[in-house]
């Protein structure tokens, strides 16, 4: 029953949006973008904060009317920034933290826009990259690690802001092409071409980006820092081919292909490889 609901509900929503596109095009665009950009999971409550986050020092950073929640596990002057993905929050790093803490580093994790304890209802990569820049200017991380949409946000951040102090970047299960994300969303809801074009034009006007060019492949092709791209062959959220394209573009990245880890990529062997890459390789 639940599986049927998951399949049918998006089509019903899409049908409603398609009908609206002929009667009230502005409203249909608002709804289409809302369902595309508003996460339904990933929120946290201070009353029920995961234990791993309770161990950190919590600080809120205010930026352009937004409140960005940060978590800091204090260590030495070496700093690592962790960036989670869609419908997640900073607690997703609990297993990796066990490895990173062995280095004695200061570790900073954030809740992205509309996730965890951060403010907002909308999630998008340009805003996330802006938040990453704000946090990076404050903490000056040497390494950055991003998962899923957090990974492409990291790639876009480095492409846009050119942080010269960043030495290594790790992307886990990250997508590449924005157009593929939008196309998949459109297919899931079975949106008509009118709504699709409205979305494309709205995104271009609001964020000044061309969805054909907004791609991890483009962001990484001139990157001079070292990195890792890790992706599972059976990832059912982000296609394995997305990672292969980025790995071919990013000349200084090591490509790690996993099997059976899914999209989450939680694995002791992988995390040990990450630790060695960050702290044992020049």
Characterise this structure.
With 282 residues, the chain is of the alpha/beta class. It contains 11 helices and 8 strands. It has a single domain, classed as 3-Layer(aba) Sandwich (Rossmann fold), CATH 3.40.50. Strands 1-2-4-3-5-6-7-8 form an 8-stranded mixed beta sheet, with helices on both faces. Strand 1 and strand 2 form a beta hairpin. It is globular and about 60 Å long. The N terminus is likely disordered.
Give me the secondary-structure topology:
Layout: H1 2-23, H2 25-37, H3 51-54, E1 57-63, E2 66-73, E3 79-83, H4 94-100, E4 106-110, H5 125-139, E5 143-147, H6 149-161, E6 168-172, H7 178-189, H8 193-207, H9 216-220, E7 226-232, H10 240-249, E8 253-258, H11 268-279
Parallel strand pairs: 3-4, 3-5, 5-6, 6-7, 7-8
Antiparallel strand pairs: 1-2, 2-4
**Unreliable spans:** 1-7
Total DSSP E strands: 8
Element-level helix/strand string: HHHEEEHEHEHEHHHEHEH
Strand content bin: 15-25%
- The CATH class label is Alpha Beta
The CATH architecture can be named as: 3-Layer(aba) Sandwich
Shape: globular
For the biggest sheet, the summary is: 8 strands, mixed
Give the terminus-to-terminus CA distance.
Answer: 53 Å
Could you report the average pLDDT, rounded to the nearest whole number? 94
Backbone CA Rg = 19 Å
């Amino acid at each position: 029953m639940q599986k049927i609901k998951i399949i049918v509900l998006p089509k019903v929503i899409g049908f409603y949006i398609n009908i609206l596109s002929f009667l009230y095009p502005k409203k249909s665009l608002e709804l289409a973008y809302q369902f595309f950009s508003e996460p339904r999971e990933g929120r946290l409550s201070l009353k029920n904060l995961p234990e791993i986050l309770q161990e950190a020092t919590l600080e809120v950073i205010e930026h352009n009317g937004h409140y960005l929640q940060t978590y800091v596990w204090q260590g030495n002057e070496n700093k690592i920034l962790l960036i989670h993905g869609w419908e997640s929050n900073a607690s997703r790093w609990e297993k990796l933290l066990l490895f990173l803490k062995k280095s004695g580093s200061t570790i900073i994790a954030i809740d992205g826009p509309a996730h965890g304890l951060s403010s907002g209802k909308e999630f998008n990569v340009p805003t996330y990259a802006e938040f990453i820049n704000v946090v990076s200017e404050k903490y000056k991380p040497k390494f950055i690690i991003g998962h899923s949409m957090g990974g492409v946000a990291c790639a876009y951040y480095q492409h846009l802001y050119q942080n010269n102090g960043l030495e290594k970047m790790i992307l886990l299960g990250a997508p590449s092409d924005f157009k593929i994300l939008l196309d998949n969303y459109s297919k899931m809801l079975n949106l008509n071409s009118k709504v699709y074009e409205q979305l494309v034009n709205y995104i271009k006007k609001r964020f000044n980006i061309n969805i054909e060019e907004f791609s991890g492949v483009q962001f990484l092709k001139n990157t001079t820092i070292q990195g890792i791209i890790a992706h599972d062959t059976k990832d059912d959220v982000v296609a394995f081919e997305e990672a292969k394209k980025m790995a071919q573009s990013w000349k200084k990245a090591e490509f790690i292909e996993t099997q059976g880890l899914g999209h989450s990529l939680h694995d002791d062997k992988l995390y040990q490889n990450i630790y060695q890459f960050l702290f044992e390789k020049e």
